[in-house]
Each structure stands twice: as structure tokens, then as C-alpha cells.
Design brief:
Blueprint lengths: L6 H12 L3 E4 L5 E3 H18 L6 E5 L3 H12 L4 E5 L4 H11 L4 E3 L5 H4 L7 E3 H6 L18 E7 L7 E6 H11 L9
Parallel strand pairs: 3-4, 3-5, 5-6
Antiparallel strand pairs: 1-2, 7-8
Helix pairs in contact: 2-3
Length: about 190
Amino acid sequence: MAKNDEWLDAVERQVRAHADAPAFEAADGQKMTYGELWAASDRIAAAVAARTDGREPVVVLGHKSALMCAGFLGCLKSGHAFVPVDVEMPPSRLADIMSQLGDPLVLTTVPVPAPLAAALPPARVLDARTVVASSHPVAAPDRGTWVTGDQTQYLIFTSGSTGRPKGIEVSARNVACFMAWVRTFPVIAEG
């Protein structure tokens, strides 16, 4: 990995070199290869691009899963920062995050519990499971739309000292520097 390699570049290189290698493996046995992850993120990127204008952030709602990772990549490929939100979050906290973001697209990766679904604008919800399961051919957005450099890669909402969620922006360059640093740890191995 190059020193300032960005996340999408690093994943794409793994896809080209090891498409059949596991990219995601959960304790419950759920697996997704790099090739499957990349294909799923292409479908998600095309669907997100079709439903958005500009570069506004997209909420990715789910739980620790391969599809959530594909959602993150799909957002970045379509030129949008992602906002990871766990499906177990209280509805009032989700509503507060949504109000701070304006009218964001919400990419769901799991079935949404009714109390949480009530906090979502139905017209702005996109189900990643349906998108990925579709058999229609898609063209992923051009590489020129990818989130890079000083563009915001993700927003993480923390409660801080006020108890109210506050969005912290993290750029693609910040993530690239972190990736370069973490790879210096002896416990991080190739693959």
C-alpha cells in the first residue's frame, strides 16, 4: 500500500489481485469476497447517484455487515460522504442527526425496526438489499466522481459534552494517513 493510498484505491487493488479472497467475514459465518464487495458497491453507487444531486452526505443505516461496507464504498464511488448509523440507535437520536443533515438519502442495509422507520422520510429511503439483488445491468459512476483528497469521506456523529449528536468530518486524506499508520503495526498482516 502506498503511503497516501486512499481507501477506494486500496480496495480496488485487492479486488484486482484477490477477487476471490474474503473481504468480510462475520462470526456468524457471513462472508463476502472482494469481487462480490466491489460488484455490490458498483450497484449501490449507481443507485445512489441516480437518487442524489451534488455531494451531500448519505446516511448508511445498518449493523456490522458486508452490505454496510458495500454501502460505504458505494457512497464514496458516487461522490458522497457516508454517515454510518447503527440500526439500534434510539429514534430521537436518528431524528436529530437527520435534522442536522437536511434531507439526506438514507441507504438501509437491514430491515428497519418500526420505531426507527418512523424517523425516516419514506421518499428518501433506498434499500441496499433490493439494489444489490437486482439483475439489471448497471454502470458504476465514473472514477472522476470518487471521493478523494480533502473531500469528506465520512461524518461520524458523537455526543460530545452537550449530549447532542455533533457531526465530525473526516476527509479521504485523513483516512489514507490513518491507513498508512495502522499498517505499521506488527499485528496487521497482508491479506
